[in-house]
Design brief:
The chain has 305 residues and is α/β, with parallel strands linked by helices. The protein is built from 13 helices and nine strands. Helix 7 crosses helix 8 and helix 7 packs across helix 10. It starts with a helix and ends with a strand.
Length: 305
């Protein structure tokens, strides 16, 4: 499986530029996927550098790089601090994260990430265990389903869709993406069908994979691991994850709570490298549809904390 077949890396040059790779530095690519960003990082490193790349999906292991400077970690990135301790690494000099779902996941007809295919309602990034999307729509109570659809999908008709799901599952278990779509589609305006179905699937996927909690844990661990001058280079795709990344880079915490010193000056461990988000140019958006909603934020640690 080639990198292009698995996943076309988004904002490749800009995100790796953001790491500001330096001699002797240790780096982490916490969303390995097809290995595109990792390969570019390795291309720019010398023999004094090390790269640790994370992915919880077994499919990503087919893309592992054969390089003495490279270590693949089969794990959710939320555990980055524990894994760095395991490998004897106290500090890292940069971390790159390309959040969201890879094109491989959307294109795999068996995983249930896309409404383009009639597939089992799975949506797990890690197929070795855990709750599936089918478990959520069949086992969660109506109010909990509605909350998930509203909070993670920002669907205005969340309560109506949740009620329809609960009514439908009383007849038989909802097992496939097609069955879920047949329940939701009558409640969605025709001119918003694709957008709202994408939001529905996004909401379930986030809940299945605990994406917001994992992101908060990863960013907290990364902040504690970074050395002075170390960089965070993070690509986001929707407002929920972007808000968390922006808050961490501006205030040092996911909630965006601002703290001030005795003189009333804002206290934050980071210095923003790009005050304005970096987005793909027209050529990249045309050649890689996944990049259309991408935003890159880069920050540098002011001092070890």
């Amino acid at each position: 499986m080639t990198e292009e077949q698995y996943h076309i890396p988004v904002l490749l040059k800009e995100s790796v530029d953001g790491l500001n790779i330096r001699h002797g530095g240790i780096y982490a690519d916490v969303t390995f996927g097809g290995g595109g960003h990792s390969r570019e990082i390795l291309r720019r490193m010398d023999d004094s550098n090390r790269l640790y790349s994370f992915d919880q999906d077994a499919d990503a292991e087919k893309n592992i790089v054969n390089d003495d400077r490279f270590t693949f970690v089969r794990s959710n990135f939320r555990y980055i601090k524990n894994w760095m301790r395991y490998y004897g690494v106290e500090r890292i000099d940069g971390l790159l994260a390309d959040l969201g779902v890879s094109s491989h996941h959307f294109d795999d007809e068996t995983r249930g990430f896309s409404f383009r295919f009639d597939a089992p309602l799975d949506m797990r990034m890690n197929k070795r265990g855990g709750t599936t999307a089918a478990d959520i729509v069949n086992d969660y109570d109506e109010s909990r389903i509605a909350d998930i659809l509203y909070l993670y999908g920002e669907l205005t008709q969340a309560r109506r869709i949740a009620a329809a799901i609960v009514k439908a599952r009383q007849k038989e278990r909802i097992a496939t993406t097609g069955e879920l779509m047949s329940i939701a589609e009558p409640l969605i305006q025709h001119n918003r069908e694709k957008k709202d179905l994408a939001k529905l699937f996004q909401a379930l996927r986030i809940e299945v994979n605990h994406e917001m909690d994992a992101l908060r844990d990863m960013l907290r661990g990364a902040t504690e691991l970074l050395s002075t001058g170390g960089r965070l280079s993070v690509i986001t795709y929707h407002s929920l994850e972007d808000r968390i990344v922006k808050n961490v880079m501006k205030t040092g915490n996911a909630e965006g709570k601002v703290s001030q010193d005795f003189f009333g000056r804002f206290e934050t461990p980071f210095r923003l490298i790009n005050n304005k988000v970096i987005t793909p140019d027209e050529t990249e958006r045309k050649n890689n549809p996944r990049s259309r909603s991408a935003k890159l934020r880069i920050a540098e640690l002011r001092a070890e904390i």
